Amino acid sequence: MNRTLAILLRNPLSLLGLALVALVVLSAISADFITPFPEHAGAVVDFANFNKAPEWPYIMGTDLVGRDLFTRIVYAYRISLILGVVVLAIAVPIGVTIGLVAGYFGGWVEYVLMRVTDVFLSIPPLVLAMSMMGVLEPTLTNGMIAVTAMWWPWYTRLVYNLARSEKEEGYVLAAEVIGASKAHVMFREILPNCVPSILTKMTLDLGFVILIASSLSFLGLGVQPPTPDLGSMVADGAKYLPDSWWLTVFPGLAILVAVFGFNLVGDALREILGAEQ
Amino acid sequence: MSAPTLLIRDLKLGFRSYAGMLEVLHGISLHIAKGERVALVGESGSGKSVTARIVLGLIQSLRSARVSGLVEFEGRDLAKLSERERHALRGTRMSMIFQDPTSSLNPVYTIATQFHEVLLRGSPGISQAEARRRAVAALDDVAISEPERVLDSYPFQLSGGMNQRVMIAMALANEPSLLIADEPGTALDVTVQAQTLTLMRDLTERHHTAVLFISHNLGVVREFADRLYVIYKGRIVEQGPTAALFDDPRHPYTRALLQAVPRITGGGIPEIEDASEAYFAPLVVREGFGEPGRAG
């Protein structure tokens, strides 16, 4: 534990990452209390104050129907985080299980599973998600499904490679010799040894899931109005550049902060877990 | 006379590959009586380790392997047992120790957790506390002075010698009747190797455990085994009691093997022919040490 702290403190970037992630997560959780106009997260219009440059109490200005941008960004964080967590909560168990089975069993099982995975990996992720969203209705749930479908193969490939090398370790053979079941060997012997890598990738990915989800809604295929979303905010504001710059700049910065923060934390985590191995 | 703990008769093993069948074992026969310590000696690739794995039933499940011949464990033909029954024998009636003790223990669990899992095989439903009590006793037996501290350690926090003793304790925890030791301690230095061998010898004697000791180290074998099988390229070439075999090797390959050991007194590395027609000479069995109940 002391070592963990020492590594964190030695690297100022890790601290910055932690601070950014804390900022994003805490603001998303307490959105109802810290935003000046919580009702602006929905379908509200206030034409008296539309398209205002940043000034008190609209610290980041207002959008084209007079809603507070700061409020909407904080609520968009909430949506993005939920999406990220749900996507990973579905994609990681699926990907990890398939990777474990393929890596441990080998033979034709491995061949079939990994070739299917390769097919998913061969399609550019955004294109796959876009085509899925094109067929499905663009809603938050379908957005999650689309992003999940493109995300699990990365975990399959990661865990497959780890499992391939771990299964050659002596403890796997030792477990088989004393009569451990295949499920026991996979989930109780091999999986715990893969956890550091999986955890690191998850933290890094949380940022990327937010980025991909924003890309989708930037293209109009993600979360639909009036639900606030960083990607669609950037897309809406882009038409009014450079005059109404706040419409684009603040949501864009918000995406940057989230992705950058999770990346720094992921790097720090890799260093900590790697050092303790 | 009761059935021997392990009886192998005319065991053949081949692997099917794209180039056809690759014969690995050409009909080997050996037997181990109850409580007997038997060594299987041979060079790398001679088929020692696969023999051990066949006994444990690990090779039979490979699709490419073709096994024929008789393998009887305590009078039961392993080939006639179901997968389930064979599975039930592993870890309870027979267990195994490996070359590298540190990698044989999972680095993410403490010794206590892994000991608990081993004991669960023998006594399903055993509680954490009871398992811990038995683990302490077992570690005591292998001369570990602070069993409580060791139990709360992870494998990488212990020395190789400690891990080896933990492995021995685990392997004997369920009182198996057969212990297969696949080159135990090869990864350790010689002083530690000597200690663990003495320990293993005492413990197996006390528990009346039969041992199949697989090794290429003749010095170790001489100290440990009652009886010796020499294996060369998938064939048993000579067998007999350890002392007699060392004093009077009768098979050309055994003689070559004994000469190949570098002397501590110096004199350079001995020059031995790598392969010779003479090594394929027929099996030499000492009088009175053939398989019981069979001529030869």
From TrEMBL, chain A:
Keywords carried by this UniProt record: Cell membrane, Membrane, Peptide transport, Protein transport, Transmembrane, Transmembrane helix, Transport
Pfam families: BPD_transp_1, OppC_N
One BP annotation, GO: protein transport
Residue stretches making up the ABC transmembrane type-1 domain: 77-266
A Gene Ontology cellular-component term: plasma membrane
Compartmental location: Cell membrane
PROSITE patterns recorded: ABC_TM1
Transmembrane segments: 79-107, 119-136, 142-160, 206-224, 244-265
InterPro entries per UniProt: BP-dependent_transpt_permease, MetI-like, MetI-like_sf, OppC_N
CDD domains: TM_PBP2 (cd06261)
Topology within the bilayer: Multi-pass membrane protein
Family: Belongs to the binding-protein-dependent transport system permease family.
Protein name, UniProt field: D-ala-D-ala transporter subunit
Organism of provenance: Kumtagia ephedrae
UniProtKB/TrEMBL annotation, chain B:
Primary localization class, coarse: membrane
GO terms of biological process kind: peptide transport; transmembrane transport
Membrane topology, record value: Peripheral membrane protein
Keywords, comma-separated and alphabetical: ATP-binding, Cell membrane, Membrane, Nucleotide-binding, Transport
Stated name of the protein: Dipeptide/oligopeptide/nickel ABC transporter ATP-binding protein
GO cellular component: plasma membrane
PANTHER family (UniProt xref): DIPEPTIDE TRANSPORT ATP-BINDING PROTEIN DPPD (PTHR43297:SF2), OLIGOPEPTIDE TRANSPORT ATP-BINDING PROTEIN APPD (PTHR43297)
Family of this protein: Belongs to the ABC transporter superfamily.
